[in-house]
Amino acid sequence: MRKILLLLLMPLAVLSASAQNNDYNMVIELNNGNFVRLDANDVKNIKFEEKAASALQTFTVNGVSFKMVKVEGGTFQMGATVEQWDDAYDSEKPVHSVTLSDFYIGETEVTQGLWEAVMGSTPCFFSSNSQRPVESVSWDDCQTFIQTLNTLTGQSFRLPTEAEWEFAARGGNLSHGFKYAMSNTIGDVAWYTGNSSGVTHPVATKAPNELGLYDMSGNVWEWCQDWYGSYGSEAQTDPTGPSSGTYRVLRGGSWGENERDCRVSNRGSDGSGLRSSDNGLRLAL
Helix 139-153 and helix 112-119: axis angle, to 10°? Predict the structure, then answer.
């Protein structure tokens, strides 16, 4: 008989659970009441770790709150690792070892509501819902937003480095080696061209990854701090990318991309002044 394990993801915590054999499936109820199913291959041996209060920081700006999730430092293999199969592009090679210190990263992409609370208005093409991710923002726009946010909060928010972004997308030290952010089945975790109907969607309406981060695959591309450059094979510690370049890094894919481009190791890039309706951001600290 087929078994179903039902979990409820609470707004501030991921409940602890595990599946011990192959005939388990998992149905997850999201905060918006929708359900997603992870198949038996995805569920086997997964453990959702309870997020302690110390692993979350909540900030409020002009009445809009957002959460930052602590990512414990560690060492991982960055790039076209084995689970990426034949989908990996040459730009993801060679695989190389990266060691990172602790950092915080946004639980969700920056929403239109947060951008408006900081900047006074939103530039978005899809502007009908404050919980949608902000888009149509350039890398330069993001720097202005972050500077203003830091003035308002007294914090030191920034964009994540490319290495931080990939480590977080993979689930950090809790990673189970999925192709996308928490699944090998893209529709469970991402808004992409196969299910988005050509628009962005409110954040946190797909399943989170092992760290409790939402939309690390799909919805909008996310700007990183780094200049775009080729990978080397040498091990690195807290890398920040090339010292100069032509394009800035984008990660995660978007509502307008196919499955291949929403993988956790896929890399994108654009000019720092370019605005696009599929480019947004996620904060780091």
Answer: 70
Q: Using CA atoms, how far apart are residues 77 and 206, in angstroms rounded to an integer?
A: 26
b/e map of 148-162 (b: 16 or more CB within 10 Å)? ebeeeeebebbbbbb
Q: Which residues contact 108 (CB under 8 A, 6 or more apart)?
A: 66, 67, 133, 203, 204, 213, 214, 215, 282
How is residue 34 annotated by DSSP? -
Predicted confidence (pLDDT) per residue in 12-43, tens digit: 333 333 333 334 455 555 555 555 555 555 54
| Closest C-alpha to 38, from 141, 143, 146, 188 | 188
**Any idea what DSSP says for residue 264?**
T
| Whole-number pLDDT of residue 7 | 35
Can you tell me the distance from the alpha carbon of 258 to that of 250, in angstroms, rounded to the nearest whole number?
A: 15
CA dihedral 102, 177, 40, 218 (to 10 degrees): 80
Q: What is the DSSP string of 53-106?
A: GGGEEEEEETTEEEEEEEE--EEEEESS-GGGGGG--GGG-S-EEEEE--EEEE
Closest CA to 265 of 217, 223, 224: 217
Is the peptide bond between 94 and the residue preceding it cis, with omega within 30 degrees of 0? Answer: yes
Tell me the backbone φ, ψ of residue 64, rounded to 5 degrees: -110, 125
Angle at 227 between CA 226 and CA 228, to 5 degrees: 110
CA distances from residue 166 to 154, 181, 217 in whole angstroms, order as listed = 27, 10, 11
Mind listing the pLDDT tens digit for each residue in 231-258?
A: 999 999 999 999 999 999 999 999 999 9
What pLDDT digit, counting tens, does each position of 91-131 carry?
999 999 999 999 999 999 999 999 999 999 999 999 889 99
Backbone angles phi, psi at 227, to 5 degrees: -70, 150
Q: How far apart are CA 115 and CA 124, in angstroms?
A: 10
Gap between the Cα atoms of 46 and 41, Å rounded: 10
